[in-house]
Amino acid sequence: MDLELDAELDRDAVLAAYDDEMRRNAPADGPGVRVEQVGGVVRQSGVAADWPGWTGVLWSDLDEETADGAIAEQIAYFAARGLEFEWKLYAHDRPGDLASRLLAAGFTQGEDETLMVAESSALRTDVELPRGVRLREAADAAGVRLMADVHAAAFDADDPGFRARLEAQFADNPGALAAVVAMADDEPVCAARLELPPGASFAGLWGGGTVPEWRGRGLYRALVAYRAGVAVRRGYRYLQVDASSDSRPILRRLGFTALTTTTPYTYRPGAGPLG
């Protein structure tokens, strides 16, 4: 995929900072989370068997001689725990044929997303809402329930783990997460969250979803602006987002720059030739 870049943003420097802070030295993103470097791989997993969060490989530093061994090691580690996991592959990761090696080992390729970044202070932070819509912070159980309702309607997927994960994050470290729901009267119609890793330069935009009948009315843009304001007030230099093909044009118009692409490769125990 050809990426159009903002000439004012030093892409290589920002990407190097992102790799260092958010991948190589990634903070745990919830309670009961273990992030560890094993050889040339950084992986995340839950300590508890029923942990509902993300599990997989965040970063790797491999070459043609070490890649297959590292892949087999991670398959064995997660399979021994009966866990499905994701290898989050970035376009600049090495070796160049790592994607083919993952497929050969039994991984399933997901849809590409684009890692996009913007200077928080350069974005508009005033929120423009359609008539009759107001924003509600989601920092309690009722707010999390509203977010889960929007998530189910927007993505046509009822995921109990999503609600459990948000509840656990708020309970463990409420200052590391900001969430907001757009309400049309008493109906939740759009929701999104902002992850604020302690000590990092990057705040993450996640979960931006709008129910079908409210799309195209500027709610997604409004929630980006709201979260940008939070990031600025909290001292985060950058906003980063894994953008889908639908949100990428909107984010580009708002001032985000594409750094690279990322693709999920998922392994299910017993599904591959090494399972």
UniProtKB/TrEMBL annotation:
It comes from Streptomyces daqingensis. Residues 133-275 form the N-acetyltransferase domain. It comes from the Bacteria. SUPFAM superfamilies: Acyl-CoA N-acyltransferases (Nat). This is N-acetyltransferase domain-containing protein.
